[in-house]
Design goal:
single chain; alpha/beta; Rossmann fold; six-stranded mixed beta sheet; 9 helices; binds adenosine-5'-triphosphate
Length: about 250
């Protein structure tokens, strides 16, 4: 199948979710081709995590559809999940496990062949400087080390759509650099990435497309130049545009 005819990495139509009658995500539409690096930019409470949890099949939408590589997340959640990596903003690890045990556990969940899993685990742990501590329990690890272990776990089954909720929060500069490099590499290999952030610089530097979300509504999306053009703010910074859009909405 040619790239043109093959299904999008992610196709969201008219997605809605409310909690106690308060709208969290309001008629979201999104279409991402393969290899896209997309940043969901929004303030606290904008609806980023709720959107990501619905895409990841962890939260049922009130209405709308989500297709991942042509697979309907609502109809075939397991099949869709096998194509995705989900990294929550507060990574959950089994503290009593070592990184290597955790990765073996994850490999078992996804039924990854033992040899392939062992090679991927070694690669990931080495690139994240966790190889020397691979047999130590995670409970004594710093937040950054735990985050890196969680990222390695999320990538072990070689997912094609990476959902990363605030992946840089709490990471020091060196670890953040490792993660940026890894995500850019994955993108070049054809994976599609969506990350959420409230930090303009992360959205601007990493993503090739940015979606500005506020109070559950996608206010604008595109490359920074496309957003500038759409808003007729040709020389403005992303921050200026973001604040103007949010102000108008208020
Ligand atoms: P943050 O950057 O603070 O994580 P966010 O953009 O990820 O924010 P969401 O967590 O998606 O925002 O929240 C969107 C709205 O939905 C908020 O008003 C939030 O209070 C509400 N919300 C989210 N989850 C729940 C829930 N489980 N029960 C009730 N309300 C919720």
């Amino acid at each position: 199948m040619s790239q043109q005819n093959s299904p999008k990495a992610l196709e969201i139509k008219n997605l809605r979710k409310a909690f106690n009658e308060k709208t969290a995500v309001d008629n979201l539409n999104l279409s991402l081709p393969r290899g896209e690096f997309y940043a969901f930019l929004g303030a606290n409470g904008a609806g980023k995590t709720t959107s990501m949890r619905m895409i990841g099949g962890l939260l049922a939408p009130d209405s709308g559809s989500i297709n991942v590589y042509g697979i309907d997340v609502g109809e075939k959640p397991q099949e869709a999940k096998s194509l995705m990596a989900w990294l929550p903003d507060e990574p959950l690890l089994y503290d009593k496990l070592s990184p290597i045990e955790y990765l073996e556990f994850v490999a078992g969940l996804w039924q990854v062949d033992n040899n392939i899993a062992a090679n991927r685990a070694e690669d990931l742990l080495k690139r994240f400087d966790l190889w020397d501590v691979r047999e130590q329990r995670c409970e004594g690890f710093s937040r950054g080390m735990k985050q890196k272990t969680a990222i390695a776990g999320a990538l072990l089954h070689d997912p094609k759509l990476l959902l990363m909720d605030e992946p840089f929060s709490g990471l020091d500069a060196a670890i953040a650099r490792d993660l940026k490099d890894l995500l850019q590499e994955k993108c070049k290999e054809g994976a599609t990435i969506i990350l959420t952030t409230h930090i303009m610089e992360i959205a601007q530097k990493l993503a090739n497309k940015i979606g500005i979300i506020h109070k559950g509504v996608l206010l604008s999306e595109g490359t920074l130049d496309e957003i500038r053009h759409e808003q007729k703010m040709h020389d403005a910074s992303l921050e200026d545009i973001f604040l103007k859009l949010v102000d108008e909405r208020a």
